[in-house]
Fold this protein.
Amino acid sequence: MKHPEWLRYGNLALAFLLELAALLSFAAIGVLLSGWLQLVGGLVGAAVFIVLWGIYAAPRSKRRLKRQPLLIFKVAIFAVASLILVLIGLQLWGILLAVLAALNLLVAEVLKQY
């Protein structure tokens, strides 16, 4: 079955925005620390996300995970990003990120956008 182009491209655009939101969430972990450790925590959090995503989920990575492991990885990353938002007091944003990520991954499975 052929799916509408707007749905395919819209889901890819949503995926990109969710990746950016997850990156910002990981960087926001510095808020849980105090003093100069806020900056260090934010930089380390962002670096961890970038390295993990670059190795295991980036489309051009030589070590990109395949279908099922990739889905599990993305669920875990978005769950951690959502949890970080909840821990820093942004509960609504954490819930929104989790719901949109779940919707995006579900549509990606239907459209075979792995």
Summary: DSSP finds four helices and no strands in the chain.
